[in-house]
Here is the input.
Amino acid sequence: MNATESRDGQLAQMKALRAHARGGPEQLRYEDAPRPAAPTGSDVCVQVRAAAITFDELTWSETWESDGADRTPVIPSHEVAGVVVATGPDADGFAIGDEVFGLVPFDRDGAAAEYVLVPAANLARKPADVPDVEAAAAVLPALTAWEALDEHARLAAGQRLLVRGGTGGVASFLIQFARAMGVEVTATVRSAASVEAAKQFGAHTVLVGDEPNDIPPATFDAAIDAVGAGTPEWAYRAVRPGGRVITLQEPPDAALAEASGVEAMFFVVSPNAEALERLADVLARGEIDVAIAATYPLSDGQAAYASRSSTRSSGKTVLVVSQS
Ligand SMILES: NC(=O)c1ccc[n+]([C@@H]2O[C@H](COP(=O)([O-])OP(=O)(O)OC[C@H]3O[C@@H](n4cnc5c(N)ncnc54)[C@H](OP(=O)(O)O)[C@@H]3O)[C@@H](O)[C@H]2O)c1
Here is the structure.
């Protein structure tokens, strides 16, 4: 029996959250969808237990198209934890029954569904003691934070980092990893109610508001915008000449970067087995606080995506698809 067939040989369906047209949470429907085909090549079919949300993914072009071709209807949520139910012939290192976590390529159907296909290179074994919700929630923020810090910010102990938006999923990992490196971390938050959360992640200093007057110019060795699009001018000015500004949602403003004499860059995280193994170790040793804002059943997926605009706790929002 392959992943598309039920026992009587009929094409099998699964429950999924799908959008049939571009847009925001209002487009998402909990409905029947075809199960993925049997995995080929190095793909692995994962029965999803938890799928974490990045709210901005509904704005990413990769969510809606692949190589310029419209992909609707699409299944969102690319951060997954679950169990292997089928493997392609080249999916080395994984067997049916393995508990895994990882990242679904952004231009493929995601994990807001009962089953998802993931390349073996984008998966790692989930440590047995780590809950599925935490494993799914950690994948994208941790890999993004490591790539931002190790490959782009390239900070040394004692240097200063500004994180714009100190309570989000990526920010929570940025702050914890940077602090562990001995970096002095300042975070901005939207309101006074969020100060404690950013401090708990390890920020040495927390500034409230999105136009902080109290940042002297040229103070930081690097700034990372963990809010989203539209990195404000003050974030460029806050960095010393020769320092780095890293944006995560869209390419930086070249004119603002030039005016402040900073190097500015944007990247899209590239999953790799080494980073996933490193994350599995960090999670297994309990070295990181994985902040969960809320969990929702898959059937309430639309509400989960819509929760962005409500008052939320800090950290990741996660869909619980099935229990172990
Ligand atoms: N390039 C990549 O590879 C990559 C990978 C992952 C994520 N990303 C991008 O990184 C960004 C962050 O992702 P995420 O998952 O961490 O998002 P998230 O969990 O939604 O976090 C964004 C945070 O920014 C805060 N915020 C919003 N406006 C603010 C303001 N004016 N001042 C201070 N804080 C503010 C929000 O707080 P409130 O709750 O108060 O609104 C929220 O906590 C997104 O744009 C995402 O697309 C990029």
Q: What stands out?
A: Residues 13-126+291-320 form a domain with the Quinone Oxidoreductase; Chain A, domain 1 fold (CATH 3.90.180.10). The chain has two domains: 13-126+291-320, 139-266.
